[in-house]
Specification:
2 copies of one chain form a homodimer.
Chain A: E1 5-8, H1 12-23, H2 25-28, E2 31-35, H3 38-50, E3 60-64, H4 70-80, E4 84-87, H5 94-104, E5 107-110, H6 126-129, H7 135-141, E6 145-147, H8 155-167, E7 170-180, H9 194-202, E8 205-209, E9 212-216, E10 222-227, E11 231-237, H10 241-249, E12 254-260, H11 263-275, E13 283-284, E14 290-291, H12 293-300, E15 314-325, E16 328-339, H13 340-347, H14 351-369, E17 377-379, H15 386-395, E18 400-403, E19 406-409
Parallel strand pairs in A: 1-2, 1-4, 2-3, 4-5, 5-6, 6-17, 7-12
Antiparallel strand pairs in A: 7-15, 8-9, 10-11, 11-12, 13-14, 15-16, 16-18, 18-19
Helix pairs in contact in A: 1-3, 1-14, 4-5, 14-15
Chain lengths: 410, 410
């Protein structure tokens, strides 16, 4: 039974987390949000106030913190009395925020794997490089740490576990498919920080197949998927955090992640990449100025947070899990469909931030209730997931299943 | 009768000019080359020596000069005793070099229109903005100034005049077509300075039709051309210097310029332009660095001078001139085909630099002989052109004609 939440970060996902915490502050208690720039935190609290999102009267305070500094984060945890920390800051701060939680006993959550700012596209085993090295430390301290509890990773890990628990006897393959069939109306834009977005696709594509890591190039392996609501969509195999943790739990299964890309996105990406404009390595102009091309590309692209008001259409993210049931081949597709405009109307963010930001708040509620306050470090598929998915349904992210018996709520 | 040549500039075209002057130094006398960076001039002279290009023993000297400074150029003209100046420097130095020629009495030539570095894509009348304002000054000083005597503008202006002199009684249209059917083997590269190359296509497309300036967007008007040697090629209407001077001499005719672009070039150009990466206006990165995107694009693209050794294939540049002959409709296509590899073997440059660099040397020879030492300012179509075109044929740029009577040398 824990109370009082500290949100680390003040980007698009943090905005969703803030609104959803406010909508559940009767259970969650005092709310705090902290980032390097306090004005961004204040703007998020203003938007919460503007929507009258607080369920009951309560505290919501903004703080400035350098989240790379464990002692600063620990001091803030003590000062605020937060027992639950939702880390949706940059991927570089996971380890420092986790240290602060271990030091203070607060529960820890994040939505993406840790990255070292000096290394680009590290090779698997990803969680093994940082997070999982601290499992024993969490266990001895009795600290609850739930890794990767956004949508993907997060809810898609829960879908795999639900397939194991309720739909299949054996699992042969897990294909996670992430389709954004929405439109932002711009000639070109990325849905989150262009630097992070492009970095994700400039390295090797890793998948787990035939019991081993397999490598491909980006856009080398693509196929069409026939999906509920969004219809036929082309998606390409790419590396993603959850391929690692799921392959650890289901080593016998092929685990692949597929992301949808339109031809237009691929064309722009290919031109920029082949010209060298996505490079992290500085170049020198004829005038002698040293510049990182990717940072210039970021500077000319639309600010992702500016896209939300005009965003229309839907996302569909789910797991196609194949295996056997009662000795016969069987498959199940577990999925959610979210609407960009609905998300904007509710919390002022587009659908991609919404799907990432609601799950850690559902997890926080489960920790507050005691259901998920397990006192050690886990990935989502290691937890009982039905309650989590049902709570998500109540909070705006309903899950459905499509299999031989039809398409229905889970 | 003039002697001794001063070349201004040390880029790819200057390299061709230097080699061709050397091959004709019995007529041209002492040779000098000057640019801001003397080492570039020395490298060009080294390549001339390496090819044993000097026809007779003679002087070839390198100099450093700030060509934006008329007095510095005038001092160099006096110091070297040059009576002929071939300006193949940047488009920003035309007026300062012309001033130095007027001051010293030296003959002046260039291969492209003057540009003000602070203005991008000026509207017509282009020659009227700078060069033609100084016609009277040249006439009173008795200075020979031949504007735009490269290939296009230059030889294509001569083709229009040859059509007038020898093939047609009236001229209804002049379509200049510039096709580079060569291949540099890179994923993408521009054939000359990317900054200049892209600037040429980011503004309005101007043409002279129905007795007036007409405007279009880039890549708005395209058509296929069936051309000798290079075959069927798609080219797009674009603005170009010679549309202005030819429309002044042939105001009743439609005058259009067409440049060949492959789909790949257009795609890369479109992506870069729509993202804002071809902008001359600085942007500020998230880290606070102020950068001109176009200069970063230039920094990541291959250096155009590095393309020459691998360049293969041919260029075809010519004029389709339509009108009447003996009261009946008639048309003639006057053209040259050049080969990239032949150009590289002879002078160490690719074919595009070659076609631009040979004509001003032919003009210099005609000035040295007295044929074109006319003592005032002209564009090429105002001169007698048969001798010029025949000399170009002897120097490596043969002209041919294709009309109802077949395809043959002019």
């Amino acid at each position: 039974m824990k109370r009082n939440v500290l949100i680390i970060g003040a980007g698009g996902v943090a905005q969703v987390v803030a609104h959803k915490c406010a909508q559940n502050n009767d259970i969650l208690g005092d709310l705090h949000i902290a980032s390097r720039t306090i004005s961004k935190c204040e703007a998020i609290i203003d938007s919460v106030r503007a929507k009258n999102a607080m369920k009951v009267p309560g505290l919501f305070e903004a703080h400035a913190v350098d989240a790379m500094e464990p002692s600063a984060v620990a001091a803030l945890i003590r000062q605020t009395g937060a027992q639950i920390v939702i880390n949706v800051g940059s991927a570089f701060v996971n380890m420092s925020v986790l240290s602060a939680c271990i030091e203070t006993g607060a529960a820890y959550m994040d939505t993406a794997i840790h990255e070292d700012p000096t290394k680009i596209c590290e090779a698997p085993p990803w969680y093994g490089n940082y997070e999982w090295k601290r499992r024993e430390e969490c266990r001895s301290a009795g600290v609850t740490a739930i890794l990767g509890v956004g949508f993907d990773p997060g809810v898609v890990n829960a879908y795999a576990r639900l397939a194991e628990d309720e739909f299949l006897d054996t699992i042969d393959s897990i294909d996670i498919v992430d389709i954004n069939a929405g439109s932002h109306g711009r000639w070109f834009a990325t849905n989150f920080d262009p630097e992070i977005n492009f970095r994700e696709f400039t390295g090797t594509v890793w998948s787990w197949q035939q019991g081993a890591w397999q490598s491909n190039k980006m856009f080398e392996v693509g196929r069409e998927w026939d999906l509920p609501v969004v219809g036929t969509q082309k998606a390409y195999m790419t590396g993603h955090d959850e391929v690692h943790s799921l392959s650890a739990r289901y080593p016998q299964a092929d685990v692949r992640f597929w992301m949808g890309f339109g031809d237009h996105y691929i064309n722009v990406f290919t031109v920029l990449k082949n010209l060298g404009l996505l490079s992290e390595q500085p170049v020198t102009t004829a005038e002698g100025l040293e510049v990182v091309p990717l940072k210039v590309v970021k500077a000319v692209l639309p600010d992702p947070s500016s896209l939300a008001p005009d965003y229309t259409g839907k996302t569909c993210i789910g797991d196609l899990v194949k295996g056997t049931k009662n000795g016969k081949p069987a498959e199940v597709f577990l999925y959610n469909v979210a609407d960009h405009k609905d998300a904007y109307n509710e919390v002022g963010s587009q659908g991609i931030s919404y799907t990432a930001g609601v799950p850690p708040v559902a997890a926080a509620i489960l920790i507050a209730r005691g259901d998920w306050d397990i006192g050690h470090m886990v990935n989502v598929e290691e937890l009982p997931v039905r309650g989590f998915l049902e709570l998500l349904g109540e909070m705006g992210l309903p899950s459905r299943v499509r299999d031989a018996e039809g398409d229905r709520p889970i």
